[in-house]
Amino acid sequence: MVQDNNQIPFDGDDEIKDEEQLEEEEREVASTVQAGIETGIFEVDVTTEVKSSFLDYSMSVIVSRALPDVRDGLKPVHRRIIYAMDESGMTPDKPHKKCARIVGDVMGKYHPHGDQAIYSTLARLAQDFSMRYPLVDGHGNFGSIDGDQPAAMRYTEARLAKIAMEMVADINYDTVDFTANYDSSEKEPVVLPSRIPNLLINGSSGIAVGMATNIPPHNLSEVIDAIHAVAKDEDITPLELMTNHLSGPDFPSGGMILGRGGIKKAYETGKGTIVMRAKTHIEQLSGGRNRIVVDELPYQVNKAKLIERIADNVKEKRIDGITDIRDESNKEGIRIVIELRRDVIPEVILNQLFNLTQLQASFGIINLTIVNGEPRVLPITDMLKLYLEHQIEVTERKTRYLLEEAELRKHKVVGLLKAIDHIDEIVELIKNSESPDEASTKLQERFGFDDIQTREILAMTLRRLTGLEKGRLEGELATLEANIEKYNHILSGRDTLQAEVLSDLAAIKEKYGDERKTEISDDVATIEDEDLIPVDDIIISFTNRGYIKRQSPDAFRKQNRGGKGVIGMQTLSDDVVDSLIHTNTHTDVLFFTNLGKVYRLRGYQIPEFSRTSRGIPVQNLIGIDQDELVKTIISIDDEKVESDHYLFFVTKEGVVKRTSISEFKSIRANGKIAITLKEGDELVDVKLTDGSMLIGIGSSEGKMVKFHENEVRPVGRSAQGVIGMNLDGAEVIGVTSSIEGELILTLSENGYGKMTYADEYRQTRRGAKGVITLNITERTGKLCGLRAVNGDEDLLVINEEGTIIRINLSQVSISGRNTQGVRIIRLNEGVNVSSFTVLIPDDEAEVTVEEEE
What we know:
Structural class: alpha+beta
CATH architecture of the largest domain: 6 Propeller
Shape: elongated
CATH superfamily of the largest domain: DNA gyrase/topoisomerase IV, subunit A, C-terminal
Largest sheet: 4 strands, mixed
Strand order of the largest sheet: 14-9-8-17
Distance between the termini: 142 Å
Number of strands: 41
Number of helices: 19
Number of domains: 4
Strand content: 15-25%
CATH class of the largest domain: Mainly Beta
Helix content: 25-40%
């Protein structure tokens, strides 16, 4: 036979060694156990022991401490508090008792844990801002929505609330099982009968080991309606429940729930997130001021911390426009008053408060409960069904108990009635008996009574021998027979048991039902500030000292040529209005500075002020440097930003540059480089073009050069540009484009102006000196601005004193290039024109015309 060299040969010695090793290990284990028995110390593997012990600890926390039972919605400590108070007679019809006494009873009899933990739980059961339906009626300081702690237990008093009596109702009718307490000296209920659906109406929260629960409270009436619906149709869906019966959580603090999507998900899966929002309203005050008033808070929001958070946001300038915050809350309810500046839009501030504070908060729903001793996450239908099953069981046990009691009592009453019918004979028999036992035996032998009946007869008093007593017993017998029939009917099947439960729940709804506190809105997307602001025409004015404001065009009256104007702005002696633009609240306003940088704001972000107010320093709105001055502001709407448009730049020394507007889509808070300038040069003006425009550049000496914008090829944002006009010692004072109109409007610093047909200006190449556009004289002063117009617009002119005149351009004459024009605005001595802008005419506006005196 050939041996296979790859086969492992059998080694009997190895097997013998293995057996010897096992025997040695067994001897060591036996020795260790014996040593442990003798010393009380056992050696164990620490890894195995930790795993086993931690699992035991975890299950103890999950089942016996942190999670509520699906049947009564209570954790053990809550159940023990309610049961102990009921057993001690601390019911709604009795006086309040010291909380220290309650805590002592609970701790000594049922809950061997810290007194403060028990007291904190007791206090929460009495807080109407924590519990939708408080189970404890507290007397004293039990804490507040500001986070204040309850007073010491030696000061506060409590008793069970009326609705809490429904939790322990029928507990003496063998409706629930009892178990021994921690030292087997007392009995405590495993679960309470809970004739109210406490888990859903009051909710629950807790952190166990590796899991947590967070069940929101609901409205009692809606929950009972939902139980009826589930009983009627076991296949009803969570969506159908939401639509017709149980609309969503109902918090004790009221407030709002935004959208139904989170509720639907939580009801279907047992997990979901809802967004809660405070209820607010806006009060209008005199002088154009507004205030925001908070009436209701989201659930579990600390009012004091909320106010502190709002103040921090104002201090850190994340919210601008709040001048004061006051807490005017009292026993009637919440009232937080937020005073606003006159120039802000209250809806915008409110939206910022929702985004930055707990005026809007989330609630993560986790329907984790104990079901048959195990933790389970339940959809809403299962929670309702399991509660209904518990109530059916409670009702069945109660009815069986009452049936047994009624049958026992009937048996006794029948014996008593028979005894009354033979009373003389029975009395004689008892008199002739030597002992109660002998009397009992004789009664059973003579009349056929059993032990129960004979004991009842022997205990009967003489007063019960009257005819009146016999009538009472006959009436009681009839009642007992009717009750027995009723109990048997209830116990005849599940349908009759369920009908009894639903009838009891209907009575509870009638007794304790109330209206919803929390409003549920339709699905609401995240609201941006801009969504809350109407699109309104505005005029933005800007002074050379950097004050900016917006106003409505209706703030200015239309006047005839030569009018003195109305006071438009109170300026300082060395401050003049530098520029005006006509735009709307939803357009981008670009700020171009003398250093060639650009910043951006939306129109509504510029505060609104009255006609006579200076406005607000622009440094408060955009982050310009200390040596940086805003020279030009223009408005750009979203459509132009997305289309093929350009920004045409002109500097004081005649340098021009054309850049695609797409390079200005995203502008940081600290601005962007718009044009790179040579030393000593400054940016004067910027125009929005479409690639087909004629550009006109005017100089302070009354000349203008006109060329096609394509003469300047597009370059990058940080480029320097090329020569656009040969100034010959003058400075650029303005820029215009052909798209703005067929006429060129020119205005001098002394208030003289005119319109000239654009065709009178010949087109040249860039870099030319230009032609005369206004005959400069001592009377007219230097040219201060020009613009292409159609001739039917309104003209707003501002002088250095801040006076404004508004006229229609139809009142301004059309004349040749080489003329002086007519007086547009009458100026005081030493005062020059500061700026002007052209408005689109509004035929529907009410116009007041003032003739020149």
